[in-house]
């Protein structure tokens, strides 16, 4: 079954209409801390190590321990690429109600750097820097890792 694709305003409406749905932000911890959709939790699908992006080998393990498989997940990153990969990994792990946020938090750009899909932030949707228990470290603790 193909993974649903929504622009940030549509994803926001999905979250508003489904109070049990969750925005899963798969950006790095630093990106998340710099600002994220209000209500999101952070489980990075990739880490930046020495300037290189590396897969987070605990991504699915943490997700499986903190997110029920029947929960509606709206998955976003910076522009939509990492979140698409995260959706594919979650689908392989048995999650079915997945939506990838095309344009992510910062917007999708074409080859010349022009924004072709405004991101969550630029669409004027609710953003926060409040971390609370939404951090990756908090999710790892919940997962007992």
Describe this structure in words.
There is one protein chain. The relative contact order is 0.24. The termini are far apart. This protein has a five-stranded parallel beta sheet with strand order 1-8-7-2-4. The protein has five helices and eleven strands. With 145 residues, the protein is an alpha/beta fold. The longest helix is centred in the middle third of the chain and has 12 residues. The protein has one domain: Oxidized Rhodanese, domain 1. Strand 5 and strand 6 form a beta hairpin.
- Please tally the helical runs, counting DSSP H or I stretches of 4 or more residues: 5
Query: Strand-and-helix sequence, N→C?
Result: EHEHEEEEHEHEEEEH
Q: Could you give the count of β-strands? A: 11
CATH-assigned fold name? Oxidized Rhodanese, domain 1
The CATH class designation is Alpha Beta
Q: Main β-sheet, in a few words?
A: 5 strands, parallel
Give the strand order, joined by hyphens, for the main sheet.
Answer: 1-8-7-2-4
């Amino acid at each position: 079954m193909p993974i649903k694709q929504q622009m940030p305003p549509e994803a926001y409406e999905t979250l508003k209409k489904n109070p049990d749905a969750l925005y899963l932000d798969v950006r790095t911890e630093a990106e998340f801390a710099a600002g994220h959709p209000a209500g999101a939790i952070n489980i990075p699908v990739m880490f930046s190590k020495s300037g290189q992006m590396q897969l987070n080998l605990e991504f699915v393990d943490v997700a499986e321990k903190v997110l029920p498989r029947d929960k509606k997940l709206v998955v976003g990153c910076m522009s939509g690429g990492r979140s698409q990969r995260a959706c594919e990994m979650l689908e392989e792990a048995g999650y079915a109600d997945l939506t990838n946020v095309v344009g992510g938090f910062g917007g999708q750009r074409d080859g010349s750097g022009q924004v072709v899909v405004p991101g969550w932030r630029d669409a004027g949707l609710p953003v926060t820097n409040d971390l609370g228990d939404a951090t990756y470290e908090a999710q790892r603790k919940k997962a007992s890792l």
